[in-house]
Amino acid sequence: MRYEKPTTVEAASALLAGQGARVLAGGTDLLVQMRSRVLSPEVVVDIKGIEATRKISKDASGYVIGAAVTGAELKEHPTLSKDWPGLVEAANLIGSTQVQGRCSLGGNLCNGSPAADSVPALIAARAVATIAGPKGTRELPVEDIMLAPRKLALTTGEFIVSFKIPARPKHGGDAYLRFIPRTEMDIAVVGCGVALALDDGGTCTAACVSLGAVAARPLLVEDAGKALVGTKVDDAALAKLEAAVRAACKPIDDKRGTVEFRIDVAGTLAKRTTLIALERAGKV
Amino acid sequence: MAKHHVTTTINGDPVEYLCESEQTLLDCLRDELDLLGAKEGCSSGDCGACSVLVDGRLVCSCLVLGVEVEGKEVETIEGMAQGEELHPLQRKFLEHAALQCGICTPGVLVAAKALLAKNPDPTETQVRYWLAGNLCRCTGYDKIVRAVMDAATEMRGA
Asked: What percent of chain A has pLDDT over 70?
């Protein structure tokens, strides 16, 4: 195996276009998979030498978060947790304190697990990935990146440089909840991200609901968001949201949860997540 | 493939070593530098026995490549005592008998030191969550948590 640490996106793309190349961000999945021989890359391309992957910037249009910024760094940012608390909380659920020192949004997405905690929160926040590749740079909404377990919409030589997160709406709030059988250090049986915005009168003007671990890829459930728009997010709206969420689930049976259990939990979790996002939206 | 020549700082001392691309920081500490304090438990980032600080950040050294710490500052358990004088956490671990087999202890101490540097007055819950990535196969968690809380009190001068 060869280790390379390019300092430009062009050099990284060129290296990644070669045979058997893998991206190294925090390594909390890659190194485990290399150790267990699930992956045996010929070249490991450490993207942390590229400044854009390692910084968070903020302007009037929102945030740009580098793909290799760590979970611990997201939490320590002076304003990100105020503007997008759900996103930061979701990212901070990945692994232990030690893992938080290395794990990243780019890695959590590109590892290609349907249960990745930060991905529904990114989708709910309408995050857009900036992707660099041999043909230049393009943008893709996060919900369009993961296609199936371990399968991404990225082509050879492409990698995610950063994520654009919109500015928090005036009365906006987001939240992420997951169900796990214990309180810490586990993989989501169901995960749910919700972001919504209210007008001055408290009527919902926009809502985005995303689910993890209930299908082959993280889901953007458009009908669930529509169930809230135009309402005061009352019980009737929440019942519609719950039904839309359950209808969207296509989970598998495994040792952590049955199909029926996951579908049931998803609806309940979506309501609870929405209520937290709603409470946050009410606080300016 | 030629080996990488890594120049780094370990426990305040400039250190150079040669490593293969595949070698983890844990491999380099133990096999190239004879720093045997960090332990290999799981090799998958679950147990925390290999915990070290890189540029002040708590990480599992089994999930960092040796070549990645070029130009960085690494702190390991070997840098915790000052000569013969134990760090307050080490002393409190002895006083509280907060170890049985000792395999997890170096990682727990490094992780606890990182917590107290960030938060000198943690609640018990905060200690337990912070140390959730440090597994004790003897399951002696209560004494570990009590030792950390006691060390925190002493270090605050309270």
From this structure: 100
All structural domains of chain A: 50-166 (3.30.465.10), 172-282 (3.30.390.50)
Give, as one character, the DSSP assignment of residue A109.
Answer: H
CA angle A144, A222, A70 (to 5 degrees): 45
- Identify the residue whose tokens are 């599992």: B60
Inter-chain residue contact A31 with B63, CB threshold 8 Å: yes
pLDDT, tens digit, 9 for 90 and up, residues B51-107: 999 999 999 999 999 999 999 999 999 999 999 999 999 999 999 999 999 999 999
Whether residues B133 and A46 touch (CB distance < 8 A) is answered with no
The CA-based angle B30-B34-B40, given to 5 degrees, is 20
Chain B residues within an 8 Å CB radius of A44: 21, 65
Of A1, A24, A184, the CB nearest to B22: A1
A3 with B4: Cβ contact below 8 A: yes
A102 to B64: CB separation less than 8 angstroms, yes or no = yes
By Cβ distance, the residue of B1, B24, B111 closest to A31 is B24
Tell me the C-alpha distance between B106 and B111, whole Å: 9
Residue with tokens 């989501």: A188
ipTM of the assembly? 0.96
Q: Do B65 and A97 touch (CB under 8 A)?
A: no
**In chain B, what are the domains?**
4-79 (3.10.20.30), 88-155 (1.10.150.120)
Q: Which pLDDT score, from 0 to 100, does residue B2 have?
A: 83
Nearest residue to A97 (alpha-carbon basis) of B74, B116, B131: B131
Pairing of strands A219-220, B4-10: unpaired
